[in-house]
Every structure is written in C-alpha cells, then in structure tokens.
Amino acid sequence: MKLFFINNDGGGFADTIEVADNTSITQLFEQRLPHGKPADYLIRVNRQPIAADHVLREGDRVSMTPTKIEGA
Amino acid sequence: MPTPLVSFGDLADGTMHKNQKSLLRVAERIASHLQRLGVAPFSFELPDEHWDQCQCLIRQIDLCVSRGWLHAAGLLKDRLERAIERCSDRLRDISRQAAGYGRLAPVQSAREIFQDLTALSDEFEGVTLDGSSQTVSITTQPIVLEEIALGSFEIRLHWDRVGERRPYEVVALHPNPAGESSDTTHPHVRGNQLCEGDGQAAIARALRTGRLLDFFQLVSRILDTYNSSSAYVSLSEWNGSPCADCGAVLGEEDQYSCDRCGDLQCRDCLSSCIRCDALCCYSCTNHCHSCEESVCSRCERTCSHCERTFCTSCLSEIGLCDECQENHDAESLDDEEFSQTVEAQTPAASPARESDPLATPSTDAVQSDCLGQTAVRP
C-alpha cells in the first residue's frame, strides 16, 4: 500500500512510499528510523496522534518529527 | 495587535462551519503563493550574524590581551569557538540544502493546507490567522530550560514571505531575556529570529511545500531544546551581567563593584589602591609616575610643578615629586650661594678707636713679661 511519509529528522523527507499491507506504525518506525526511539518523536497519522499498535491504511499521511531539535 | 481573521481560541463547535470557509480561503491563498514560488530560486541564508559575532569577539579578545585581562580573554575565546562552530554548522546546512534543492516534493494542495491549519488547534494554543497581515500564528507552552523560565513564544508565519529570507518571527510573550543581551529572549532566539540549527533544512522544506503543521512543530521543538554548545547566550550565563570594562558575563558570585564609581566589574578588571586598598576599575585607577603602583582617584595627587600623578608617598611635603624637588632644591642652593657671594664682596667697616675715648685700648704697647713685671715695647 502507498503512504505519504514525512520524516522531519535531519534534512527532511516527504514523499510517497510503498509498504506492506497491515503495517503498523511501530513497524514503519522501525523500518524508517531503525536507530531511533519512538518516544523521541512526535508521530502523527493524518495529523493526529495514534496508539503504538495502530495499523496503517492505504493513503495515510504519516509524519515523524524529533522532539529534540538543536538550534544554533 | 492585528484583528484576527480567525482565532481558534474563540471557536465553539457551532461557529466552526462559518470559519472553515475562512480557513479554506486562507489555504487557497497560501497554496497559490507557494505555487508561484515553485519556479523561484531557493534563497540561501548565509550566517552573516554569526560571522559578525565572530569578528566582534575577536576585537574584544584583542582589547583584553592588550590590557592584560587574560581571564576575560580566555572566556571570550570560549565564546569565539562556539560562534565559529555555529558558522560552520550553518554553512554545512546550507550545503545540504543546496544539494537537496532539486528534490523538493510538490506543493501541498489547498485542501491539504486547510487540513494543516485545522489541525494546528489540536497541537497548539492561541492559533490565529490574520488575512490582512497575511500571518498564521501559534503560541507555545511556557518554555523552561534548565530551570530558567523563558515564557511562552508566539511563532508568527508571514505566508506571503515564504521563499524570502526571514518569513517568520519568534516573539517572546513574557520576555525573560539574557542579562547581557536584551534582545536574546531564548538561547537560540535573538531579535525575534530563531537560529534553526539542525532544523533548518527540514523547516525550509516544510515551508516551501506548504506543510504548515510540520513547520510549527519543528520550530516549537527547537524552542523546547537547549543546545549548550551553540547558543547566543548560554543558560549558565543567562542571569549574569557584563563587566563594565571587558564585557565578560559574570554570574552573581563573580560580580564585584568598583569602590569609587560603583560599576560592575570582574575581579581581573579591578586594581587595589596601594594607599587605601580600595578595589577600583580602570577608569578610577591611575598609576604613580614614581613607584608605578596603582592608586585610586581619592589617593592620587598631582605634583604642584609638573602636574603628573603620584601617590602621596612619592610627593614631598611641599607637594613636589622627586624630580621637581631636586630641581627646586638645586635652584634654592644656587640662590643661597649667590647671596653669600654678594655678602662676601661688600667692603669691611673703618676702625673707630683713636677718636673714641671709650675704645678698648690696644695691648700692643704693653706686654706682660712675667708676673709682677711689665715690659714696655720700644
């Protein structure tokens, strides 16, 4: 299934990606941010906070934003 | 204070429909502006402020070294290193930004921007849209970093300026600025401008593609994060005050004041008066021309002849320095010798004995020879 995935870590990434059906948000996180911890990110699906076991659906918009971003 | 077109803080469920049309109109305007930007060149913001700060710090270090304020110079050097690091970080971000410029995602549709605007009220307080000034604003929660309360901030986006150098401002609503810099309201905010650091590229992408919810989330995350290695003013110095002479920021325990003028000083910038032991700043201290010791403005004296500054011990009773006293003494001696010379050259008084019957008789004609006898000189 296709998702619109936004990763606001680092330089930022926003594009449509292909994932397996019934992928959960936790699984997506582990795939896309393998070195991160979910607690260190604001994770939104369709602009809403969701539970860790939320299963994603076709066309969902998923964003992941670090809670700590260092200014200069 | 602008009259908001829509203020989410005032919305009740019954009025949502009416305002949704307003939100959609704003979303359309934003989308239209971003579409026009799609063909415009990307603007890169070079780290001019950080560069200027480096130059200022270098000048301050040179001044401290020339005056022998080595401790202050050391503190400023630490700040210079941080400022150079900020410059380098910014240049690296710009490099990444330039590299990724050609790979921007398409601009969001008006509907998606509308959904972002609607979702703002779920994430933030004080969401305000102002059509006349073309701004979207949110208010953060009160920010406390390392037990220093900085208050809430308003993040104000001018959507018509997206694509320009500074399209948004970060305004402290209850400012608690740094002691040394009143326009530094946050370790990473100066003059209402956020130094984005690690978030710069992501913020730029979010704005250019119309992802307004992401933009406000990114900025608020930066405000809630303290980067001690790259702050305009570190939190450890936040409540400090600058030394009046060298400018070093002083914590409360490091603050002294000049005993004469009362100015705040660091210990390195104070000198002890050799006469009264008062601690005085550079302006209230002079150096005795003779012994070269520090002397305060109350204990200094001037030679009544050459008018140079001396301590009281290095002036004579008549207020002359050693050099002037010597000259004075030499002149006095010359005058005395001259007087003596004049007296010596004046003729002696004439004898008055022959005509003066009371004059003491001369003893030349009568000489005693022996006891009882008197010899008369022929």
Key terms:
heterodimer; A: 72 residues; mainly beta; Ubiquitin-like (UB roll); 1 helix; 5 strands; 11% helix; globular; B: 378 residues; alpha+beta; Herpes Virus-1; 2 domains; five-stranded antiparallel beta sheet; three-stranded antiparallel beta sheet; disordered N terminus
- Whole-angstrom Rg of chain B: 43 Å
Shape of chain B: rod-shaped
The biggest sheet of chain B amounts to:
5 strands, antiparallel
Count of separate structural domains of chain B: 2
What does this structure look like?
The complex is a heterodimer of chains A (72) and B (378). Chain A is mainly beta and 72 residues long. Chain A has one domain (2-66): Ubiquitin-like (UB roll) (Roll). Chain A is built from one helix and five strands. Chain A has one helix at residues 25-32; strands at residues 2-7, 13-18, 41-45, 48-49, 61-66. Chain A is globular and about 40 Å long. Chain B is α+β, with helices and mostly antiparallel strands. Chain B folds into two domains: 6-237, no CATH class; 249-314, Herpes Virus-1 (2-Layer Sandwich). Chain B has helices at residues 16-37, 48-66, 70-100, 110-123, 200-208, 212-223, 322-344; strands at residues 6-7, 125-130, 135-139, 143-145, 148-151, 153-158, 168-172, 184-186, 189-190, 193-194, 241-242, 249-250, 256-257, 264-265, 271-272, 279-280, 285-287, 294-296, 301-302, 309-310, 366-370, 373-376. In chain B, helix 4 (110-123) runs parallel beside helix 6 (212-223). The radius of gyration of chain B is 43 Å and the shape is rod-shaped. Chains A and B meet through strand 5 of A and helix 3, helix 4, helix 5 and helix 6 of B.
Brief sketch in words of this structure:
The complex is a heterodimer of chains A (72) and B (378). Chain A has one helix spanning 25-32; strands spanning 2-7, 13-18, 41-45, 48-49, 61-66.
